[in-house]
């Protein structure tokens, strides 16, 4: 078993990253509560720095680097929110960042990385090319590799999101998060079970990228092959550290269709007047699909990010 961050380590991480992040608000919608039959508290990480919870893990990982490591900067491979989050955290810390991105990555995401000061190295759009290109960058520069989700310091940072939820004084019966690589879900489960063992932790996952669901049911890690979902932030296979946390601390995983994801995404746009990306809507879709399970409860839902191309909304 890999070591898990402790509650004290998560609290220390929260102090460490204060100047790097926003303390995001918790919002409610009377209309959605009525529809769901429970009281939902939305933790709005779509308002976070770089528009996603990923700012937390990246900031924590950079802040924990030694002075010797900082001299050579940091590197990662990512086509999404981790790329922008690491570029920004590095720039704020005054160090270099090298971001390996597939040539197929959306221009809007490449622009974001450049705007935060990251140096982009493009590669072919497959995992092997990403990994070999990253290794070349690390060999050439001496930069420290900061993985996007399957990494102690990153999970420790992501765990600060639910720490803020518990600091609000709300007694949650259930907390829900989306699951892709599992950094947010793993961190959420750790903090919540340390503070309130009775609280259920439930994940939402797209049917077209359901490796966490299948791994959870089989009690062994099953990698995803050829994921296909509108929730582009959840295409990654579950990481080993996060799988171990999930098996110990997560109560259930529900899968939802792209149609259900889009309906929940639209509901949040219409009722709450806020911008979210498809991955964000997955936990609400899971709740609405299984609402008899949540009747009368206080449910926390983490809205994981708001980085969406407004010219390509699915509704």
TrEMBL record:
Domain Tryptophan synthase beta chain-like PALP intervals: 19-305
Xref: Gene3D superfamilies: 3.40.50.1100
SUPFAM superfamilies: Tryptophan synthase beta subunit-like PLP-dependent enzymes (SSF53686)
Cofactor(s) required, per the database record: Mg(2+); pyridoxal 5'-phosphate; Mn(2+); Ca(2+)
Pfam families according to UniProt: PALP (PF00291)
Keywords on record: Lyase, Magnesium, Pyridoxal phosphate
GO MF terms held by the record: ATP binding; L-serine ammonia-lyase activity; magnesium ion binding; pyridoxal phosphate binding; serine racemase activity; threonine racemase activity
GO biological process: D-serine biosynthetic process
Family in the record: Belongs to the serine/threonine dehydratase family.
Name assigned to this protein: Threonine dehydratase
Species of the source: Belliella pelovolcani
